[in-house]
Design goal:
Elements lengths: L18 E4 L2 H6 L4 H15 L3 E8 L2 E4 L3 H10 L5 E4 L4 H9 L7 E4 L1 H10 L4 E3 L10 H4 L4 H8 L3 E4 L8 H10 L3 E5 L18 E3 L2 H13 L6 E4 L10 H13 L7 H12 L3 H28 L1
Parallel strand pairs: 1-2, 1-6, 4-5, 6-7, 7-10, 8-9, 8-10
Antiparallel strand pairs: 2-3, 2-5
The protein binds pseudouridine-5'-monophosphate and manganese (II) ion.
The site of pseudouridine-5'-monophosphate has 17 residues, from helix 1, helix 7 and helix 11.
């Protein structure tokens, strides 16, 4: 990270253990309080228990933070509902840094999405990043041209992202086409079907199936040796699938059009509505899959560390 943005306060944790980046938008805009805090804490402790070091990334009062203290995680978790957190994708990083720096008396967060977390993780020298679901091509793409910046960032930033695939709120086949066009390596862990977040099944074939952590680590290493600068997406099927989520998804997606919700508000709106319409069942499933991604992320990070030793 260049010295201007990497100050003493934002320092990456010093450790010889593999570092695992975590995003902050999932905390501020992806889940309600207090489940968001519970998930963030449990994810960090799973990572620690597997002998890796978690580093949740966010912007606090004009300061990039790589690795949050518990009280900061708590504050971040409350900041979504209190509207003190701005969802901040790559294009808003610079602006959010300068804007939030002007609010010294309010704890204002710039919460980073998959795209912006990938970028900051790479700058901080962190190779692995665990999240829940990645953004993708939206279902109404023909009309809205809505493609998440997560996909374009995956095309250019060499961070390995662990997710449970792409939610059925999105157009899964088109998301896979986009990733193929942009040369992103997409693997599925121990399944021959690409997972769709709540469900391990999307109807789309896995582009690559990986059976072991070591195999994934070897492929990441080989990409690096080939100077392939793009990202690597390892998708992990949800261990606690949620059935009958389709009608909730349909309703939420329809409401987006009816209410003319656009831009970066779309995804948080759909996530919130699906949680409401499934009586919170979607949250239980969401938490289980993030924890599962954390375990697999640590397994691969450790296999990678062995490989480059
Ligand atoms: N999908 C989820 N949970 C999330 C997100 C997506 O299941 O929390 C968040 C992530 O931060 C992701 C962002 O990077 O939404 C994508 O937003 P958009 O579709 O506006 O690019
Ligand atoms: Mn979008």
């Amino acid at each position: 990270m260049s010295p201007e943005v990497l100050t003493e306060k934002s320092l990456t944790p010093h450790t010889s253990k593999p570092l695992i980046a975590l995003e902050s938008t999932i905390v501020s805009h992806g889940m309600p309080y207090p489940q968001n805090l519970k998930t963030a804490i449990s994810c960090e402790s799973i990572i620690r228990s597997l002998d890796c070091t978690p580093a949740t990334i966010a912007i606090l009062n004009g300061q990039i933070k790589v690795g949050l203290e518990l009280h900061e995680l708590e504050d971040l978790a409350r900041s979504g509902e209190e509207k003190r957190a701005t969802k901040c994708t790559t294009r808003e990083l610079g602006y959010t840094l300068t804007k939030t720096a002007k609010n010294p008396n309010i704890k204002t967060w710039g919460s980073t999405t998959v795209a912006s977390t990938m970028h900051l993780a790479e700058m901080a020298g962190i190779d692995f990043f665990v999240t829940g679901g990645t953004g993708g091509v939206h279902r109404d793409y023909n009309y809205s041209l809505d493609v998440s910046a997560d996909l374009t960032e995956l095309a250019r930033t060499s961070t390995t992202v662990f997710s449970a695939g792409v939610k059925s709120i999105l157009d899964v086949p088109r998301t896979l086409e986009f990733l193929e066009t942009h040369g992103v390596t997409v693997g599925v862990y121990q399944s021959d079907e690409f997972p769709a977040f709540f469900s391990p099944k999307s109807g789309c074939k896995a582009p690559i199936v990986f059976e072991t952590y070591r195999e994934v680590a070897e492929a990441i290493r080989a990409n690096q040796k080939l100077y392939l600068d793009g990202g690597f997406l390892l998708t992990c099927p949800n261990p606690k699938p949620l059935e009958n989520v389709d009608s909730a998804v349909e309703t939420a997606v329809r409401e987006v059009t009816e209410k003319n919700i656009i831009g970066k508000e779309v995804t948080p709106y759909i996530l919130k509505r699906v949680a409401e319409l499934t009586d919170g069942n979607s949250l239980t499933s969401n938490i289980a899959l993030v924890e599962n991604n954390a375990r697999i992320g640590c397994g691969v990070a450790k296999a990678y560390q062995e490989l480059v030793k």
